[in-house]
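Lab notes, practical 5.
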Amino acid sequence: MGRRSVREFKDRPIDKETLEALLDVARRAPTASNSQKLHWIVANGGAKVHALAAEAMNWMRTSDIAPARLEQWERGYDFILRGAPTVIMVCTPADYQWGKQDCAIALTFLELAAEARGLGVCWTGYLIRAAGVHAPLRQTLSIPEGFVIHGGVMLGERKYSYRLVPPRKPLSVQWV
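Output from the prediction step:
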């Protein structure tokens, strides 16, 4: 009940053992026909993560995506990856029809495991979008040839603790 998207992080990288433990949880997530076709990409450390954000920003400058955000970037505010110390992306072969679903399930497992370890997590919307179309970012991420990024999260130690959880709408259900 207390899980929320975290967008402000402490400036400390996550130790490799913790990242390996999170990825071990995620790799155990169910996949279609137990195909297990997920490939993970991890950037750990502020400089590496900032380089990803900067390359996504280069794509945004030429694509007319969120032009109002350009000024924020120029003033030093990283609205793309929020100064997170770590980014984890997941991809599958482009011709794999269940890639989006398998990646979403695995990232959700990872997200909940990170939460259980006291880490903050938020999905990387802008980075996911840019990685799908911007060749220099694909190269920076070393995405394997023929693979497509389906999701990613930024994570780290929370800068702040929150007392409230964002409100949720009432359950919408139809019993048949």
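Observations recorded by the TA: The chain has one domain: 16-157. The mean pLDDT is 92.
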